[in-house]
Design goal:
globular; alpha+beta; 16 helices
């Protein structure tokens, strides 16, 4: 039901009672101050840099029309994504999620597009039974398995099955088809499994699982192997983060520096104001939309970024110098839609200036053309997505196989099982 106008005005009018007189220009001046004085390097609580420029700190731009017409630096690009069912609890006590990973190719390779890796992760309070399976083949070039986990307390089950399914499917599929990638692989999202890494600091229950689970060990091994495989082959690997939700930079500015009030809710807000270009027109500032803008690359140990390059990390068996696994990133701003994207890559690829420039140019050209994520990412997302219609059918299939019912609440009645 549409809100009655009197109630709409009643809700909207609440903003009039918020006495916040900070001007947009003040935030831009603050962002400029951060850029000029705090990012190279940015120090954390251990008085060690958590962010520092790789090369010179700089802001650059590329004309949207001109770069869209350039020859792409990489003749072929592959994209990787994993779609999930989202965690579902059943009345027999099982909680499960399913991840479905796919790799795209540009230009298209239809036989590769048809290959999938499926992981069903489930949690059960019943420790007398084990439901896990080994990998088994199905279809043409696809494989699947079940992973079973147990938590001693009834909490975090949905988060756990989601992360295990997602990252095991994604990393396994990438390794399975690594030899198909000849020029450039782009992951949909960060280059490392941050959803699992968060367990380490979230609670003792999840820390114990992180330490003891063979599935977590396998996931970590897979991402290490992924970096090493592509480094050995000389094929760059990067991640494209569409929705930048990290807060590590603004949080550090707030907690560890003398910067003063930090007005941004997340890092994307800060970098948008650092990268946005404006001009004064008729007494008002207007955004310039002809150029994409980007920062230099930064080496990062902010938040969870330092896990894979920690030289004393007991959870990783690495064959390269730990420094090679360091997270590096640059930020890209598209003024046409006021969007910030993040490009991540292990330092083993970006330490070479020519390679990181090729990665930049490839993604800038794609963003200019697509007005959003690169085509390889969009194709992988389409291939891996579990559509709403399939969700309901899969849930019904699980109910029949498990001889139980979905443990539903009113949302399922209101929105349907495929919400």
């Amino acid at each position: 039901m549409t809100l009655d106008p009197v109630h709409f005005d009643g809700i909207a009018g609440l903003a009039d009672h918020i006495d916040y007189d900070a001007e947009d220009r003040d935030h831009r001046d603050a962002a400029e101050d951060v850029w000029e004085h705090y990012l190279d390097p940015l120090y954390g609580d251990a008085a060690e840099p958590i962010l520092e420029a790789l090369g010179d700190q700089s802001r650059r731009r590329a004309n949207c029309e001109e770069i869209a017409l350039e020859e792409p630096p990489f003749p072929t690009t592959h994209g990787l994504d994993a779609g999930t069912l989202n965690p579902r609890p059943f009345k027999n006590g099982l909680v499960l999620d399913v991840a479905h990973a796919a790799m795209s190719a540009t230009p298209s390779e239809l036989d590769l597009h048809d290959c999938r890796t499926v992981v069903k992760a489930l949690h059960s309070n019943d420790t007398s039974k084990t439901f896990g399976t080994d990998w088994e083949a199905y279809g043409e070039g696809s494989k699947r398995r079940i992973v079973h986990t147990h938590l001693p307390e009834n909490q975090y089950e949905e988060d756990v099955v989601h992360a295990l399914a997602l990252y095991l499917a994604e990393s396994s599929h990438a390794l399975e088809h690594a030899d198909r990638v000849s020029d450039f692989l782009l992951l949909d999202g960060p280059i490392y499994p941050k959803g699992v890494l968060r367990w380490y600091a979230r609670s003792s229950v999840l820390t114990d699982l992180f330490e003891d689970s063979e599935h977590v060990s396998r996931i970590l091994e897979n991402y290490v192997e992924l970096v090493e495989t592509f480094a050995e082959r000389g094929v760059p690997l990067a991640g494209f983060v569409k929705n930048v939700s990290a807060k590590s930079v603004v949080r550090t500015l707030k907690r560890e520096t003398d910067f003063g009030p930090v007005p941004w809710a997340h890092d994307a807000g800060l970098f948008a104001q650092i990268l946005e270009r404006r001009e004064l027109v008729g007494g008002e500032f207007e955004r310039l939309t002809d150029d994409l803008t980007l920062t230099n690359w930064f080496e990062s140990r902010a938040g969870l970024d330092g896990f894979f390059d920690d030289p004393d990390n007991p959870h990783l068996d690495r064959s390269l110098d730990p420094e090679e696994y360091k997270v590096t990133f640059c930020m890209v701003y598209d003024p046409r839609r006021d969007l910030v994207f993040k490009i991540e890559a292990p330092k083993v690829f970006t330490k070479d200036e020519a390679t990181r420039e090729r990665i930049e140019r490839q993604i800038l050209q794609e963003v200019a053309l697509q007005r959003g994520p690169p085509r390889a990412i969009a194709k992988a997302d389409d291939l891996a997505a579990i559509d709403r219609g399939s969700v309901g059918s899969l849930v019904k299939s699980f109910e029949n196989s498990l001889d139980t019912e979905l443990d539903e609440n009113y949302n399922a009645v209101r929105w349907g099982r495929d919400y």
